[in-house]
Amino acid sequence: MPASASRRPSPSAAARLSIGQVLEILRDEFPELAHSKLHYLESEGLIAPERTPAGYRKYSREDVDRLRFVLRAQRDRFWPLKVIKEHLLEHGIDSEVTSIASRPGPTSALQAVRLDRRGLLREAAVEEDFLAELEQFGMLAEGVLFYGAAELEIVTAARDLAEEGLHPRHLVMLRTAAERQAHMIRSVARPRSRTGDAAARGEAENFARDLGESMITLHSAMLRTNLRDG
Predict the structure, then answer these.
(1) CB contact set of 141 (below 8 Å; sequence gap of 6+)
(2) Is there a contact between 64 and 93 (Cβ–Cβ < 8 Å)?
(3) Where in this chain does the record put each HTH merR-type domain (predicted)?
(4) Which CATH number fits domain 11-91: 1.10.1660.10, 1.10.418.70, 1.20.1560.10, 3.40.50.460?
(5) Could you give the CA distance from residue 56 to residue 187 in angstroms, rounded to a whole number?
(6) 17, β-bridge pairs
């Protein structure tokens, strides 16, 4: 075991953890997580670490579990914070997600996914050459060590379409449209994060996710309308 791994803290190793220790615990799954994100989630009422008399934040095991749930819900399901907060108030982090099952957009079941390449092939039931084709046409990033729920959904959906004759080379326009939409959303959200304030950066990130969710809903509705009218 590497020395760094043996020194890495765990939620059960101490009653309370510093913000640096929390970031270290979650670093493998959320490598871009920063102090500003935790501060923003705290300001939004998603987590509530204790404060020492000197004002330092101290996180419990429950805080870390709750934080992991929030981050996965954002990353894997694109849930806005208001939806995550509603779910936590009604169900907590250990229950099945049923309160927003009728919600449009991504599927309602929250599942943490972290797969290596072999695991992705297995879970998506595809062959290596199919992943290589997805990479060739920009549907998947190359050189990735681990894949999440979004990548699994991409491969699974692409597989289903390929079975009906729509192969990755036919889907380039979808990738291009998604890239343009992401650029549009970032351009709208970016000014909100230019104040240098940590809370503002977190708010901009959440604002972008909310815009993305609305974009997904709009696209889905327009596609259904065009299929109906055609």
Answers:
(1) 135
(2) no
(3) 38-91
(4) 1.10.1660.10
(5) 35
(6) 59
- The dihedrals phi and psi of 176, each to the nearest 5 degrees, come to -65, -40
- Both tokens assigned to 32: 């871009």
| CB contact set of 86 (below 8 Å; sequence gap of 6+) | 99, 100
Q: What is the DSSP letter of 57?
A: E
Instruction: For residue range 51-88, list pLDDT tens digits in order.
Output: 988 888 999 999 999 999 888 888 777 777 888 888 88
Residue 57 phi/psi, 5-degree rounding, is: -80, 140
Mean pLDDT, residues 162-182 taken together: 92
Q: Is the dihedral of CA 184, 190, 192, 193 positive or negative?
A: positive
Q: 48 and 42 in contact (C-beta within 8 Å)?
A: yes
What would the two tokens of residue 85 be? 């907060």
Q: How many Å apart are CA 36 and CA 149, to the nearest integer?
A: 25
Whole-model pTM? 0.54
**Whole-angstrom distance, CA of residue 46 vs CA of residue 30:** 17
Pair of tokens at residue 53: 């008399």
Query: Where are the chain's structural domains?
Result: 11-91, 113-166
